[in-house]
Specification:
By secondary structure, the protein is an all-beta fold. The chain has strands spanning 3-7, 10-13, 18-25, 32-39, 46-51, 57-59, 67-72, 77-82, 91-99, 112-113, 117-122. Strands 2, 4, 5, 6, 9, 10 and 11 form a 7-stranded mixed beta sheet that branches. It is globular.
């Protein structure tokens, strides 16, 4: 059974940084495409960044140049380094996994989800 557990969320001021982690278990981690999504109150869940099994990445325009997605296959862990944070980055952040295929920022492509970690950015 696939399990994803996020950590690293918190409250920061605008311009600050946070690193989110997602510990994965229950499947062949290296063969999966992994993604980070976020959902702000009253808004739909949106894709932030994704990385496929080859390490190729894709980012939403709103976070390009500020966020970096990476993974450590030996540790079965996905990361999201978030720099230059803005108040509009405030949301619940979710880690997600899909078996095979290339990267995607479409939430409907993902079959497994973590419980989320909250990020709050104050101005």
């Amino acid at each position: 059974q696939v399990q994803l557990v996020e950590s690293g969320g918190g409250s920061v001021q605008a311009g600050g940084s946070l690193r989110l982690s997602c510990a994965a278990s229950g499947y062949t981690y290296s063969s999966y495409c992994m993604g980070w999504f976020r959902q702000a109150p009253g808004k739909e869940r949106e894709g932030v960044a994704a990385i496929d099994s080859d390490g190729d990445t894709i980012y939403a325009d709103s976070v390009k140049g500020r966020f970096t997605i990476s993974k450590d296959n030996a540790k079965n862990t996905l990361y999201l380094q978030m720099n230059s944070l803005k108040p509009e980055d405030t949301a619940m952040y979710y880690c997600a996994a899909k078996n095979g295929g290339g990267w995607s920022l479409n939430r409907y492509d993902y079959t497994n989800w973590g419980q989320g970690t909250e990020v709050t950015v104050s101005s």
